[in-house]
Design a protein that fits this description.
The chain is α/β, with parallel strands linked by helices. The protein has seven helices and seven strands. The protein has a five-stranded parallel β-sheet. Helix 1 (31-43) links the parallel strand 1 and strand 2. Helix 6 packs across helix 7 (152-162). The model has no long low-confidence stretch (mean pLDDT 92).
Length: 170
């Protein structure tokens, strides 16, 4: 990680915590994976921040509890619910589905983003990985529009042109 992280960086670690179900179901990122990444981030002299916004209508704090992310808080690692964040409108210069996106300030201000998805199926595509995982930085109304208005595939591509993980697990 020292190739992508510098001392003093604010590093967003973005797991996939769509629903409050244990990692053994295959639907969520195991908290211990994020713990290991946070440790590496700290060893590089940077500040790890676990950040997520669960699925539409799902309480992200409940998901953190069920998925054991409170264990990270006990270790002093910041774990934030992006549904509670202020957003900044970010232009999407090459956007085909969207030309501007409201992105949480913590994500906009991050020096590095690390995406930690899980491989799973989806009703609109064969599998979801790191690119679609970034949809979890969005607020609920926009998540719905990605599926119903913009077309999830192109909208996810557009999102990833402005929210760019430096490290992805594909």
């Amino acid at each position: 990680v020292k190739d992508i992280i510098s001392p003093g960086d604010r590093v967003i670690i973005k797991p996939n915590l769509v629903y409050p179900v244990a990692a053994c179901t295959g639907a969520t990122t195991d908290w211990r994976v994020c713990k290991a990444i946070a440790r590496m981030v700290k060893e590089a002299g940077a500040q790890p921040i676990i950040a997520e916004s669960s699925a539409i209508g799902v309480d992200t704090e409940k998901t953190f509890q069920v998925c054991s992310y409170d264990e990270l808080r006990k270790l002093g690692i910041e774990v934030i619910d992006l549904k509670q964040s202020r957003t900044v409108n970010v232009p999407v210069p090459k956007g085909r589905a969207v030309t501007e996106l409201p992105i949480p300030e913590e994500v906009v201000n991050a020096d590095v983003i690390i995406s930690v998805p899980v491989l799973k199926t989806h009703d609109q595509c064969l599998a979801t990985l790191s690119l679609k995982n970034m949809k979890g930085v969005l607020q609920d109304p926009l998540k719905k529009k990605f599926h119903t208005t913009y077309g999830v595939f192109q909208a996810v591509v557009d999102l990833n042109t402005v929210v760019k993980p430096a490290l992805r697990h594909d």
